[in-house]
Oxidoreductase YtbE (Paenibacillus albidus), 280 residues
Amino acid sequence: MIQHLQDTTVLHNGVKMPWLGLGVFQVEEGAELVQAVKAAIAHGYRSIDTAAIYQNEGGVGQAIREALDENNLTREELFITSKVWNADLGYESTLAAYETSLAKLGLEYLDLYLIHWPKAGKYNEAWRAMETLYKEGRVKAIGVSNFQIHHLEDVMNGGEIKPMVNQVELHPHLIQQDLLDFCQEQGIQLEAWSPLMQGQLLEHPVLQNIAAKHSKSVAQVILRWDLQRGIVTIPKSTKEHRIIENASVFDFELSAEDVALINGLNQNKRIGPDPDNFDF
């Protein structure tokens, strides 16, 4: 049982990745972003997830530097993720995008670098660049985001290194069971973005009943459900009390019946794009 905010899963290359982190999608550069990241780190979070397309890597980097000083932490105690955007997919362009992200973040390396979307005809060359970065020791782990089973199979058939992580939209209306099963069989860590479905599930009666039984919030129940299914999760919030609440999921356990009820809410419903039809 995962028992602490700083508990980690071990990726197939031996790198340790926290089970729960802070996502900063749609958080603009500025004081709110900096304070949110700093609050998360001060309250025990060690994983921060950003991306080039979020246009907030500079603020995340500032927050990291300030948080390290204020909390007497070392860079090695944090796990920082970013992603290469579709426009930069390609061998040389992915290598250049990595350097740009590092510069904006003010870091010497990333713990995890992901291909953001499986843009057809582009991601294989980008994966070759990811393998180069990994072989050169520039990044601790490499992976993908929004990849479906056939995308993963394509990367594995054409590449030398298996992705270590696949970050996808995942919540009770999109439980991704087939993808989870495939990733677990292959030793690829599945990670959930938008685990709370941007707040759309917080009034759901089934989830409210389970939450009441455990004296927890619906958000806490959903995040606990992720963890018990072996899924890394990165809820986004800029409010300190929510950041604290989202991390208070290590003192209870859902029953098998609870998990089955939540699984039963699946509708294969996305709030983000369909990876097979996203061509930005």
